[in-house]
Description:
- It is a single chain.
- This protein has 219 residues and is an alpha+beta fold.
- The protein is 39% helix and 24% strand.
- It has a domain at 36-182: Rossmann fold (3-Layer(aba) Sandwich).
- The protein has 5 helices and 4 strands; from the N terminus they run ααβααβββα.
- A 4-stranded mixed β-sheet has the order 1-2-3-4.
- Strand 3 (132-146) and strand 4 form a beta hairpin.
- Helix 2 packs across helix 4 (81-97).
- The protein is elongated.
Amino acid sequence: MMTLLRRYFKPAALAGAAAILAAGCTHITYKLPDEFLSDGDLLMASMKDAALKAAANPALAAENGPFQLTSLATEEETENLLYSSFEDALVGALGAKGVEVVAAADKDEGVGAVKYRLIECRIVNAQADGGRVKRIGRTVAHIRIYGAAKGGLLWAGEYVGEAENVVPASAVAKLADDRIIPIGPQQPEAGQNPFVEPLLVTGITGALIYLFAISASAD
């Protein structure tokens, strides 16, 4: 009798332990690995990259400053969290270079200006091998630099910052950040060809040019 009980005791004990473990796991939320950056962290990395490139511009030198930072965006656009984050990144990059940044009310004369606008700041997802997704944080910032001495435009152009991260496809939804409102063109919907719309626009434009040419020749 004891031999028979021992025969069934071990499987029963293992099954009971498994049941207890499974019940406990229903209350556990597993933390994603630190290298799986959230949308916000990935965009912040791309903004820092763009800000560092902008700060390296020779026109942003101490002798041309100090500088005020001014957004070229509308008031509604600057309410986007991404604008304040980019300005913080730019202030940090300039400070590390030894370039002084002043508030608008600090000085009225003898102050240069860095005017900026975010043309693009968003996450772009691309398919990678093995059921994974390559996530690219991309920031494109338009920058204008004005000198303190004469107040003239010293430089204008765009800087692109990027940060990449590859994660399992199942983790993408968990890395979304509700605070982020992307800036720039949106990704095409699933199954939509991203080249269709540009082709349509090109075709319509070509047709209008053709009709205009015909009308002009008839006149």
